[in-house]
Design goal:
single chain, alpha+beta, Immunoglobulin-like, five-stranded antiparallel β-sheet, three-stranded antiparallel β-sheet, 4 helices, elongated, membrane, ATP binding
């Protein structure tokens, strides 16, 4: 069994980005006990596409190709010596350029905040969409119910507020107006009014009797 420490963490950094590749550079960790014999690079996307690559100790740079355009990748690196593999470096994020020449901002100096990550943004946007949709539907239903309730009230008010133009107490039918006997002595004098049809009928009857 070998007694010794594995190498320290390499100092990894991103030096170039295109739509399908990312270039990495690192400094070899110093180890007096045992020199580095190889490096291991692990990289992948947030949706689970993970890869790994072994690099000879003689190299201090590499370009990873066949990457997806407009995609965020995380890179980390560890060194090996005779005593084993050392610790991995922190994830180094980088976003490949769009195929049309545009690019997303590349986070090289610091880790991307959690509120920019897909697993956080997508649920938040979906929740806001559901809430706004529910509010709009509730408002539309309330508006419709208000309109349906107000329409019968207007019709009922129109029916109850109608006032007939003729007072039934002053109206007379034909039977009531001409049902008085012309030859009745008790009512003949009281029914004689100037210009009335009753008096005309009474005068006509008197002339016929004479």
């Amino acid at each position: 069994t070998l007694n010794g420490d594995p190498p320290s963490v390499p100092n990894l950094r991103v030096t170039g980005i295109t739509s399908s590749s990312v270039s990495l550079h690192w400094n070899s960790p110093s180890s007096a006990a045992s020199p580095v014999i190889q490096y291991e690079i692990q990289y992948g996307t947030d949706d689970g596409d993970k890869r790994q690559l072994h690099i000879p100790a003689t190299k201090e740079a590499v370009t990873l190709t066949e990457l997806r355009s407009g995609t965020r990748y995380n890179f980390r690196m560890a060194a090996f010596n005779l005593y084993g593999r050392g610790d991995f470096s922190h994830d180094m994020p980088a976003v490949t350029h769009l195929s049309d020449g545009g690019s997303f901002p590349s986070l090289v100096d610091e880790e991307m905040p959690f509120y920019y990550r897909t697993y956080f943004v997508v649920p938040v946007v979906a929740s806001f969409t559901v809430i706004i949709t529910a509010i709009v539907i509730a408002w539309a239903c309330l508006k419709r119910a208000t309109i349906m309730q107000s329409t019968p009230l207007v019709s009922q008010y129109a029916r109850t507020s109608y006032v007939p133009t003729m007072d039934p107490r002053h109206s007379q039918t034909m039977e009531e107006a001409y049902d008085i006997p012309w030859n009745s002595p008790a009512t003949r004098n009281s029914m004689r009014k100037e210009g009335s049809y009753t008096r005309l009928k009474s005068n006509s009857r008197q002339r016929n009797v004479v």
